[in-house]
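Action item from last meeting closed. Structure (375 res):
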């Protein structure tokens, strides 16, 4: 018999059990990259995470004979619902053994949670911010997860979701880029060089972490505005932007972050992150002086790079900004002699960007799916 209980997030032991289940489930999986335990703990702490300034979330575990067999986070993102005029709940941190009864038990408890709030649909996995990664993986299980910028799950997850009546809502695709086959058409190169020569757009790089962090607010606001037409968009608060961007930039190498300026305003950005997955796997989600040193060394020796955060404000599309972004993307990959690159998690609805990337030689090799169901 399965028993589902709500986690008391004020109780450290209960929080630890919820977190540890994920690590136990994927122990020994070579493709899985453990998240930072401190990040998951922050998601579960209403005093720390800015999401709770406006929205609600609760956490549940399913147990059989005293052993956890599934877990889930049930969420009501109120600004998202207000912006899109919906009554959706979302779920995140969903993990289960290969057992439909266990998965159904914890999901049914989430359904009850949503119905009690007058919500009519469930959608997910979607996290506490756009940097948490989207979806259940449905393709590319043989490839290692790109750091903690996406989720990894066993191949039985999508089957269980479909068996329980969930349907596809949207996909997020990740593309593999082989540098010597990543070719910019001549017209793209000419367009990029022309706008740079005219001074229409200026590419700014950063000399160090202090300068980069001084731009964090402006970068965050441009990041939020760039995706205003995307399916997953909702207006983030200033505190959410700061929390997400500061977290991302703290582990970034400044030389891989570029922004595009127009009249001294940030209108575009390119975030590139050397792949530190191997170091993250060695330290099991723990942050300490040894793991920090290892992560910094891995940044220098890795031959993979993630391009996760490529965008330009909608009003500047078609004015040479996109060409400049692709030009700088290729320059980043080539100048630092990476052997492999990944464009990480593009929404399926971003049709033009996907077409552009495929034209440039990028190949889809991982797909994550957002599932939904009426309650």
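Sequence:
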């Amino acid at each position: 018999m399965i028993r589902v209980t709500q986690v008391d997030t004020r109780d450290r032991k209960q929080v630890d059990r919820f977190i540890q289940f994920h690590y136990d489930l994927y122990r020994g999986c070579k493709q899985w990259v453990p998240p930072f335990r401190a990040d998951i703990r922050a998601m579960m702490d209403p005093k720390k995470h800015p999401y709770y300034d406006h929205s609600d979330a609760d956490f549940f575990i399913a147990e059989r004979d005293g052993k956890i067999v599934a877990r889930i986070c049930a969420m009501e993102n109120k600004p998202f619902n207000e912006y899109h005029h919906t009554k959706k709940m979302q779920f995140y941190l969903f993990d289960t053994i290969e057992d439909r009864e266990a998965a159904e038990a914890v999901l049914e408890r989430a359904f009850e949670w949503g119905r009690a709030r007058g919500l009519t649909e469930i959608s997910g996995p979607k996290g506490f911010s756009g940097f948490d990664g989207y979806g259940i993986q449905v393709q590319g299980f043989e490839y290692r997860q790109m750091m903690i910028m996406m989720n990894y799950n066993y191949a039985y997850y999508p089957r269980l979701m479909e068996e329980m009546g969930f349907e596809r809502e949207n996909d997020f695709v990740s593309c593999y880029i082989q540098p010597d086959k990543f070719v910019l058409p001549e017209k793209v190169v000419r367009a990029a060089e022309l706008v740079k020569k005219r001074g229409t757009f200026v590419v700014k790089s950063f000399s160090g972490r202090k300068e980069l962090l001084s731009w964090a607010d402006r970068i965050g606001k441009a990041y939020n505005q760039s995706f205003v037409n995307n399916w997953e968009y909702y207006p983030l608060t200033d505190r959410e932007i700061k929390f997400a961007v500061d977290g991302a930039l703290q582990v970034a190498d400044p030389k891989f972050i570029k922004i595009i300026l127009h009249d001294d305003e940030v209108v575009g950005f390119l975030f590139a992150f050397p792949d530190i997955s191997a170091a993250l796997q060695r330290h099991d989600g723990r942050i300490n002086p040894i793991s920090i040193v290892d992560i910094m060394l891995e940044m220098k020796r890795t031959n993979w790079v993630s391009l996760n955060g490529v965008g330009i404000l909608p009003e500047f599309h078609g004015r040479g900004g996109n060409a400049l972004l692709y030009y700088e993307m290729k320059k980043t990959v080539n100048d630092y002699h990476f052997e492999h690159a990944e464009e990480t998690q593009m929404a399926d609805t971003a049709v033009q960007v996907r077409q552009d990337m495929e034209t440039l030689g990028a190949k889809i090799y991982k797909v994550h799916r957002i599932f939904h169901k009426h309650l």
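Note appended to the action item: Residues 185 and 360 are 8 Å apart (CA to CA).
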